């Protein structure tokens, strides 16, 4: 009986340790459906052109949807928003067929994406967009065609996202 109790205790400890590992892994992206509504605008995402985003929080089962990639940056920067972010997914415009429909399942984790800022393209709500790509070459091609410059997640300036609609020199990048 003692061996059985000890064996059961070891199994329970290993199972709990495994649960902790799962919580740290990046969860997979959700697929965009017709039920997805933008966190800030309250509108159906399928009604908007351009890249979309969703954030997965540890404290919620369902993702928080955004009608633009830029809105997901705003969420991550604003002090009043939740900070238990497990993943930030943005539309992968390198895989999108066109600007109007970036695809329901084409996502890239934002912290591994390349973004074109300052382009002539506008986001879902008509504001300047942070246009996401999984591939730097595709981002550079887009910037050559539509203007702007290519930056990483951490290089997206706060005032490009939260304030001024101009493209600053990057001195106040996302942290």
Tally of contiguous helical segments = 4
Question: Order of strands side by side in the largest beta sheet?
Answer: 2-1-3-4
Oligomer: single chain
SSE succession: HEEHEEEEHEH
Percent range for helical residues? 25-40%
Low-confidence stretches: 5-9, 12-21, 166-171
Count of separate structural domains: 1
Total strand segments: 7
* Rounded average pLDDT: 85
Sheet/helix structural class: alpha+beta
Topology of helices and strands:
Elements: H1 2-24, E1 53-57, E2 64-66, H2 69-77, E3 85-91, E4 107-109, E5 114-117, E6 131-133, H3 136-146, E7 149-152, H4 158-162
Antiparallel strand pairs: 1-2, 1-3, 3-4, 5-6, 5-7
Description:
By secondary structure, the protein is of the alpha+beta class. The chain has one domain. The chain is built from four helices and seven strands. A hairpin with a 6-residue loop joins strand 1 (53-57) and strand 2. It is globular. The termini are far apart.
List keywords for this structure.
about 180 residues; alpha+beta; four-stranded antiparallel beta sheet; three-stranded antiparallel beta sheet; 4 helices
Short summary of the structure?
By secondary structure, the protein is α+β, with helices and mostly antiparallel strands. The protein has helices spanning 2-24, 69-77, 136-146, 158-162; strands spanning 53-57, 64-66, 85-91, 107-109, 114-117, 131-133, 149-152.
């Amino acid at each position: 009986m003692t061996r059985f109790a000890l064996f059961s205790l070891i199994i329970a400890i290993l199972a709990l340790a495994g649960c902790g590992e799962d919580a740290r892994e990046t969860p997979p992206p959700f697929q965009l459906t017709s039920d997805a509504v933008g966190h800030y605008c309250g509108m159906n995402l399928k009604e908007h052109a351009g890249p979309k985003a969703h954030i997965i929080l540890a404290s919620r089962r369902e993702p928080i949807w955004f009608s633009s990639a830029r809105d997901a940056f705003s969420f991550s920067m604003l002090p009043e928003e939740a900070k238990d972010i497990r993943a930030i997914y943005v539309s992968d415009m390198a895989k999108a067929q066109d600007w109007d429909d970036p695809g329901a399942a084409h996502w890239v984790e934002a912290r591994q994406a390349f973004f074109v800022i300052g382009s002539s393209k506008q986001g879902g709500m008509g504001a300047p967009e942070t246009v996401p790509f999984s591939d730097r070459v595709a981002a550079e091609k887009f910037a050559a065609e539509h203007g702007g410059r290519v930056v990483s997640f951490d290089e997206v300036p706060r005032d490009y996202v939260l304030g001024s609609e101009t493209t600053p020199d990057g001195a106040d990048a996302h942290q």
